[in-house]
Amino acid sequence: MHVTLQQPTGARLITATDQELAIPATLRYTSADPPAAHIDFPPHVTVDGEATTWTVSRVLLSEGLRAPAGLGNVRVRPAGSAHTYVEFHASQGKAVLRFATSDLTRFLARTYTIVAAGEETVSAEPDQVACSARRGFTGPTVPFPSP
Q1: Which of 2, 19, 5, 24 is nearest to 99 (CA)?
Q2: Which parts of 64-139 fold into alpha helices (H)?
Q3: Model-level pTM?
Q4: pLDDT digits (tens, 9 = 90+) for 80-89
Q5: What values do phi and psi take at 114, rounded to 5?
Q6: What residue ranges in 72-120 does DSSP mark as E strands?
């Protein structure tokens, strides 16, 4: 049986003109996809009006709380001690979200009670793990939140 946890939170979408827009988000983790963390956005904040999920590596999210992490399409970096930026780069452009570091830290701590760090592949099928690892490093496959 798989366990899923969800943590509602808020984020700030940083626009191209450096405006900050508050948007709701839900951090989600499931033991069915142990290497991945998901960020869900409701339809009213997305460009196409559809619910959107971004998938990021749990390890990348954790590393990015302390120092800049990630290459390519997904990057995570601290912004002082109170905030963390999560950046997604795709053909549609770049989206930068700012989260409270405390929210991300609490979320990650809760995920480790479900699947301990370093044990992500113990209960998952190898093909599923490889697929979710690729998703975590290729950025969003669905539209960006709208400014």
Answers
A1: 24
A2: 101-114, 126-138
A3: 0.80
A4: 999 999 998 8
A5: -90, -50
A6: 74-79, 83-90, 93-100
